[in-house]
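Sequence in, structure out.
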Amino acid sequence: MNAFLTSCAPISRVDWLIVHDAPVPQEGPENVRFVSLSWEAYRQRFSERCAIDLPTRPNYKMCDAKVFLGTVFEEEIEGYDYFGWGDLDLVYGELDAFLEPLLGKHSVISFHAKQLSNHFVLFRNTPEMRGLYRKVSDYSDKMAMSEYAELDDTHLSAIAKEMPDAWFAEAYTTPFVNWIPWADGTYNFPDKWEWHNGRLINDLDRGYSFPYFHFMVWKGGESFYYFATENWEKLSPEALNIAYGANAFVIDPYGIRQIREKGVAPGLLMGLSKPPKYSLRRRIYLKVRRWRSG
């Protein structure tokens, strides 16, 4: 959690609202606000405002519930130009630089090209966009299903992509997903990410900066849509925690560790700048990396 909070601190264009029923971190930035709400009170909000019944216990069905958040928390997002939702298994880069040319021009901002980047996505804060889920046919029936109905990834994505001023572009934030090859068109993914005072880089895409890194796959588990890889299931909690406010840290299959800060020159913005052209040096590096891993 400290890596997430540390990465939020330099960002001026986004405030985060974290609704929770767990202990709050002792330290955090001013642009992250924690609101305590029991699970039963959370369920009651959904029922009163959307006529939706959430499961009696949180589960993966909550991904479907994301599409209702603009209505459920309408008062909390009042006065903001945009609203959205996101995950906590992220580390943000220089998000301000990525959003600056997009805000005010687009009704939807997604850092995936094929569907909504539901780990971090923004919508213009209007009644139409807050209620965009109403355009999903039989959305209440889909929400009533016990299993995940893909309301966010499939159904809302299809509607959002039809909007003429929507922005969908691949920023390559989620490695090891089998339906998104990396920026070079291959399935060679970076396995080392570094954060230096707000700038996020990796070991493969030299000269490029990223809006965020979604380390979903490294958390472990299995899924049909991502590749099996080294993960954190056998690591201790200490291997995944850093002090809040660190100037630099690294994320790799061995955990999250504080490192010495180094100067990182301003780079191109992945997904916004021109596509990368990869060099012979990178291909050699990949071969050496495969040889070392064995």
